[in-house]
């Protein structure tokens, strides 16, 4: 494998199916190609919590594991070489990790827990450069305050299907925005890809954008 010198890389692999992360990379003007898990990969197993694991440790560990898995996928799949970008987002309240709801009832339970209170949204982002080196991952921490939303409004939102597949059962860029009184931190980080930290990592990996 040839190694880069001073030349920049024209694109990055994005190891994520999230359309929001794709939109945010496009916002930065970054060219990317998707590098998604193969059918034989157990991607969900990477997100399993360890007993007693704190949310900050969890999101960093999962992000690093995703980065390592994506680099292995790249090397095994006959792809052109390039850096790889991964990210992971979780929601935490009362020292508990709120992952993706399994159904609408689970979503309502999570949203009820968030209503009228502050919680944290943690997004870790990592880049493996074209030499296979993991650059120091970044962590974006934001605080979000939910209004004291009535239960019928939460049930209507859950029934829309939007909470499914989203950590904490909501997406700030969607209908849940009406529930959010205040944020302190990174809006793009809450969406799933903190652009300030991501841009710094991509420049460190010599991505041309």
Structure description:
The protein is of the alpha/beta class. The chain has one domain (12-204): Maf protein, CATH 3.90.950. It contains six helices and seven strands, in the order E-H-E-H-E-E-H-E-E-H-E-H-H. Strands 1, 2, 3, 4, 5, 6 and 7 form a seven-stranded mixed beta sheet that branches. Helix 1 (19-28) links the parallel strand 1 and strand 2 (32-34). Helix 3 crosses helix 4. The radius of gyration is 18 Å and the shape is globular. The two termini are 24 Å apart.
Question: Which tags fit this structure?
Answer:
Maf protein; seven-stranded mixed sheet; nucleotide metabolism; cytoplasm; Maf-like; single chain; ITPase-like_fam; 7 strands; disordered N terminus; 209 residues; dTTP/UTP pyrophosphatase; 6 helices; alpha/beta
Please give the largest β-sheet. 7 strands, mixed
Instruction: State the helical fraction.
Output: 25-40%
CATH class: Alpha Beta
Strand segment count: 7
- Can you tell me the residue ranges where pLDDT is under 50 for at least 5 consecutive residues? 1-5
- The third-level CATH topology is Maf protein
Rounded average pLDDT: 93
What is the name of the CATH architecture? Alpha-Beta Complex
The best one-word shape is globular
Write the layout of secondary structure elements.
Elements lengths: L11 E3 L4 H10 L3 E3 L20 H22 L7 E10 L2 E3 L5 H11 L3 E11 L9 E9 L4 H9 L20 E5 L2 H5 L3 H10 L5
Parallel strand pairs: 1-2, 1-3
Antiparallel strand pairs: 3-4, 3-5, 5-6, 6-7
Helix pairs in contact: 3-4
């Amino acid at each position: 494998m040839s190694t880069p010198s001073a030349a920049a890389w024209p694109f990055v692999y994005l190891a994520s199916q999230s359309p929001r992360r794709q939109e945010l990379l496009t916002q930065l003007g970054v060219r990317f190609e998707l590098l998604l898990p193969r059918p034989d990969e157990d991607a969900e197993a990477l997100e399993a919590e360890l007993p007693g694991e704190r949310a900050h440790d969890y999101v960093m560990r999962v992000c690093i594991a995703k980065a390592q898995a994506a680099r292995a996928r790249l090397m095994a799949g006959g792809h052109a070489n390039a850096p790889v970008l991964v990210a992971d987002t979780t929601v935490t309240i009362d020292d508990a990790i709120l992952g993706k709801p399994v159904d609408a009832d689970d979503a309502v339970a999570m949203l009820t827990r968030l209503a009228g209170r502050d919680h944290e949204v943690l997004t870790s982002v990592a880049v493996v450069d074209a030499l296979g080196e993991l650059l120091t991952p970044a962590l974006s921490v934001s605080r979000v305050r939910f209004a004291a939303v009535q239960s019928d409004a939460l049930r209507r939102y859950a029934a829309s299907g939007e909470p499914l597949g989203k950590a904490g059962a909501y997406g700030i860029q969607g209908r849940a925005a009406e529930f959010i009184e205040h944020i302190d931190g990174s809006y793009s980080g809450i969406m799933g890809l903190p652009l300030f930290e991501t841009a710094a990592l991509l420049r460190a990996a010599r991505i041309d954008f």
